């Protein structure tokens, strides 16, 4: 069984999982385009997203009050496994019904948050570690109107930075990144 969001997550994961697996240990302390995170911090955040949003699909409360250190023995393979589990959880159509008890928003929006993190942080990590990254076009097309809608709230909550100007010839992904405060070189 699949849903549109699980199909989009699969496409995003096909791009992001290899980026995560390609990060060298000596890069864990490097800065990322996400100002408040070094590579290790961002990996832990993204790991927490893919683990926590498995439960979010089952309408379990989310707890982001602490970020565990997931970057331990075997973390590259565990990230791939946990990402597959998140996708499987969002493959159930029931995951899209109702309101999230932990976030107080419609479940489809919660799924979009996970998709956005998987896509944008894939780019963040690729950029930080010098790896090429091309997002899944279908995921970006789906996310752009969502990010436009959520940008004010995202900024207010500290999840997005201030919008930066996008180059005049920017494509949709570059415009999405600019909306959330990422400067594309």
From TrEMBL:
Q: Which residues form the Mycothiol-dependent maleylpyruvate isomerase metal-binding domain?
A: 11-126
Please, which domain of life does this record's source organism belong to? Bacteria
What InterPro entries is this protein classified in?
A: CHP03086, DinB/YfiT-like, Maleyloyr_isom, MDMPI_metal-binding
Coiled-coil regions in this chain? none
Q: What is this protein called?
A: TIGR03086 family metal-binding protein
Its source organism is Paractinoplanes hotanensis
